[in-house]
Amino acid sequence: YEIPKRDWSSDVCSSDLGAHGLSMMMSAVGVGALLQAALLARRGGIEGMTAYVFRSILIFAVGLVALTQVTSIWPAVIVMGFIGYSGSVIRVGCMTLLQYSVEPEMRGRVASFFTVVYFAGPALGALLIGKLSDLFGIQPVVLAAGVMTAAIWAFARYRQGGMAPALEATTKPA
After folding, report:
1. Per residue in 86-124, is it b (16+ CB within 10 Å) or e — as a string?
2. What CA–CA distance (Å, rounded) separates 118 from 30?
3. Helix axis angle, 49-67 relative to 138-157, nearest 10°?
4. Which residues contact 166 (CB under 8 A, 6 or more apart)?
5. Is residue 20 a contact partner of residue 71, using CB atoms and an 8 Å limit?
6. For 62-105, what is each residue's pLDDT tens digit?
7. Measured distance CA(166)–CA(153) in Å, rounded
């Protein structure tokens, strides 16, 4: 979710806080991720992880849409906390599900491929979002990203029942 947070802080929120506005938004993402880590650590198992990830994808999409509706720094900081929380659930939850759903001898390869895609995807997305933001403005582009995320969630939601048994296999990570 490569949102140009500096531009959001200064342009959209009309914040004259400069680097402080950016640091508040980034800190909110970090606090959301830390909260997610604490809650995920308490789960104690893989059961229900698919549903947890699916809920987080929806929260992420709603967060992106909500972010386009705020014009003040403090509501943006709060929304970024939810985005940080849900984004972290998606990342950690997907990696956990991947590790449980593949054979032990394939885990390293699958995890490596996931990591490459995970880091390359946002980098390429940032280029696209940056270019589209130059053409249309940051808010419409983030709104479109939120709507597309919600649409993908709705499409995948119908397949969740079939995915959960395969992803939540009882094989333990090595």
Report:
1. bbbbbbbbbebbbbbbbeeeebeeeeeeeeeeeeeeeee
2. 18
3. 160
4. 101
5. no
6. 999 999 998 888 888 899 999 999 999 999 998 888 888 888 88
7. 18
What amino acid occupies position 144?
A: A
Residues in the chain: 174
Q: What percent of the chain has pLDDT over 70?
A: 87
State the burial class of residue 72 (Cβ atoms within 10 Å of its Cβ: 0-12, 13-18, 19+). exposed
Q: Which residue has the tokens 């993908």?
A: 152
Three-state secondary structure string covering 143-171:
HHHHHHHHHHHHHHHCCHHHHHHHHCCCC
Dist CA 2 CA 71 (whole Å)? 19
d(CA 151, CA 87): 17
Both tokens assigned to 86? 């849900």
